[in-house]
Amino acid sequence: MNIILLGPPGSGKGTQSSHLAKKYSLNHLSTGDVLRSEIVSGSKLGKEASKYMNEGNLVPDEVIIGMVSQKLSAIDSVLLDGFPRTLNQAKALDNELSNLSKTINHVLYFNVPSEELIQRLSQRLSCRNCPNTFTKSENNPSCKSDSSCEEQELYQREDDKPEAISIRMKNYTDLTEPLLNFYKEKNLMTNIDANKSIAEVSEQIDKIIHI
Ligand code: ADP
Hints:
211 residues, alpha/beta, 3-stranded antiparallel beta sheet, 49% helix
């Protein structure tokens, strides 16, 4: 089974992914997480990507498409989180999957009002060591207390600062939103009310993809 999570920054795709990937034995492929680990490792790809990411801009299509194609050929079923984000990427994904004789089974659209998204992103703290995220209002959260990760210190992502958030929102509207029609026309898309608790969102997803 191959699933795409589509939705604006802060809509909870990453949070639901860990649960979904485990429950349905899918390989979680988050392009944002892959890029962030490339940055940490100091690779050429990471260096190139970081200037776009810190500003809140998208990394160029050819870089992302190359990176995802390489990963896709090495795994069986996939849960795509943060890809595709442009029409070019969506078309490239179609080609790549058809070369591998695979198809997309579901596109889940995480729908959240924009005021709520801005609130979530500006309150978000991230772990330096793993994909976990937390909310600032929690009492001095540390990743260690919540998971097997040993990291004590959380940080605010450069692109979770106000200026970058506005750029990300605009990029989402201009470049990613057109994908909603692209997948609607293919009859693959289901709307998720993602302005709910983590448990409620995951219940909605389970009803759609029950196998
Ligand atoms: P969010 O969904 O909260 O914006 P992500 O972790 O998915 O965060 O992505 C962080 C950044 O990584 C994006 O703002 C962008 O710069 C880059 N990125 C991730 N996925 C893609 C993609 N498919 N195409 C272009 N850039 C991407």
